[in-house]
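Hey everyone, long-time lurker, first post.

I ran two proteins through the pipeline my lab uses and got sequence/structure pairs for each. Pasting them in order. The first:
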Amino acid sequence: MKEQTTKERILEAAEELMLERSFHSVGLKQILDAVKVPKGSFYYYFESKEQFGVEMMKHYMDQASVHKRSFLLNREKEPDPLKRLFTYLEGSIAFMDKHPGKFPCLAIKLASEVSDISAGMREELVKGFQDWINIYREVLNDAVKAGLLPEDLDIDTEAELIQDHWAGAAQRAVIFQTSEPVRHTVEYIKNRIENMEVR
């Protein structure tokens, strides 16, 4: 396991703080105090807070994509693509049960806050969300190839629906401080896909 660079430590500390609060409510001092580095270190790596925000969003989306791929596309650990998908989605229910009222994802939390004020951050969100949709698409394609889902399935639309349903449910779960929206959405996605399965 490679040692983290100072830049990575700054980015990850900021991600944790902003997951608890927001992009605008977290100041530079709080971030630097968390990693115990001087102010000069920040401006050595980032020209401004906005440019820092772009890099932070890219870092977060890339890391989240790595995590999703390692679970959803691990064909050796679990050959059945639908089991991989359902187990992954059910994990979000467990998170919301354990952390009611907390966002499970920094991208969902910050999306509405930063999209209209930073074109750069919005672009990283677009690329990241599209990557996540592509991962879902690949899982569904695995299921089609395995004969578990119909060959004529519109996997592009289905992958988008999985992402959109989950993101909306996660947001409402935070507002209502209950895992029920995520639980209902995961059950809906599972039932929808199971009803498509080739018998």
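...and the second, right after it:
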Amino acid sequence: MSSPSESLLSLVPVVPVVVIDDLAHAVPVARALVAGGLPVVELTLRTPVALDAIAAIAAEVPDILVGAGTVVSPSQVEQAVEAGAGFLVSPGSTPSLLAEMSACGLPFLPGTATVSEAMAVLEAGRTEMKFFPAEASGGAAYLRSLASPLPAARFCPTGGITAATAASYLALPNVGCVGGSWLTPADALAAGDWDRVRALAAEAAALGTSGS
């Protein structure tokens, strides 16, 4: 899938945030998420096989938009682009990282956790950003308080969000989607329980039509 012409925050209500330890899991996970109605996945660059997993999904599951998460350095931006990532997500935003992501040509969500960080991203000409770690940084109440002073900012909160709390974030006017790791539990991946992943994805996809 090519880079989206529409907002990253408008593609799905929940972006699955996935850690792949076994390269053999990458394609089945992606296919299960698509079958559940979530054609977007963020693979974190936290494991040795992450870049290969992005490349495998990009090549074999054309129906999904695969992104690279936990991008923390300019060099990782280049590696993710070369692997075939369709978007980038960072946990924070340094000036050099923000510049490199801006120059790479891919959609991206720079990480923010404070008002000043959100303002810096806005000053760089970007209105869409990640809010991380969401629960530890004040949660939905904190994001609600940012809507008035920073009306242009829109967020994808990630970090500590669960199936039970996702709707409270999605109800906020400045939240377009949330990132969640609960869709791909480690034990489900280890067992190859793709039906469970598909079912969890379907429940999350329904949050976008629940009127929350």
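Reply from user beta_strand_b:
Welcome! Quick read of the second one: Residues 194-205 form the longest helix (12 residues). DSSP finds nine helices and nine strands in the chain.
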